[in-house]
Structures are given as structure tokens and as C-alpha cells.
């Protein structure tokens, strides 16, 4: 899956399902600060990612993510691993 499509899908569900202000989403923005999600929201996000992309993200994956760019890259890498 192309990175642009991943970004579009992720940004869409963040805005529509997690009520994130789309203007605050940028590659360099801090993921955790911008999202302001609690632990239950992260569980919901894992479910949404799995249903949209067919991959699972774990706690270790989220700990490594700092920016939205990291988030997109992690999803892209998981998809590539799955399809390898």
C-alpha cells in the first residue's frame, strides 16, 4: 500500500473517530501530545488499524513512535512485513 494512502486513511479515522483536529496533524507533530488519547483510546486505535490495514500494533510499537511520521512508517512497515 502506498504511503499516501496510509496517511489519508489514518488521518481520516483520527479526525472522524478520535475527534483530532486535522490542522494539528503533520508529519513532525508529536503523536502523543496531539492525540491526547488515554489507554482505552489506544486499544480502540489498535482495533481500527487492524480493521483498516490487517496488521496489529502492540505497546512496544507505540513506545517507539514520537511523530506522526513514525506512526505512518510503523504501519507501512507492518504491512510490508505481512506481505513479504
TrEMBL record:
Look up the domain of life of the source. Bacteria
Domain Carrier, residue spans: 4-79
SUPFAM superfamilies per record: ACP-like
Tell me which Pfam families the record gives: PP-binding
**What's the protein called, per UniProt?**
Phosphopantetheine-binding protein
Q: Which organism is it from?
A: Chryseobacterium ginsengisoli
Record lineage: Bacteria, Pseudomonadati, Bacteroidota, Flavobacteriia, Flavobacteriales
Amino acid at each position: 500500500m502506498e504511503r499516501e494512502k496510509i496517511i489519508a486513511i489514518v488521518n481520516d479515522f483520527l479526525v472522524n473517530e478520535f475527534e483530532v483536529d486535522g490542522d494539528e496533524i503533520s508529519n513532525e507533530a508529536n503523536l502523543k501530545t496531539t492525540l491526547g488519547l488515554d489507554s482505552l483510546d489506544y486499544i480502540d486505535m489498535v482495533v481500527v488499524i487492524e480493521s483498516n490495514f490487517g496488521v496489529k500494533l502492540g505497546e512496544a510499537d507505540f513506545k517507539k513512535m514520537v511523530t506522526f511520521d513514525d506512526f505512518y512508517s510503523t504501519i507501512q512497515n507492518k504491512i510490508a512485513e505481512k506481505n513479504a
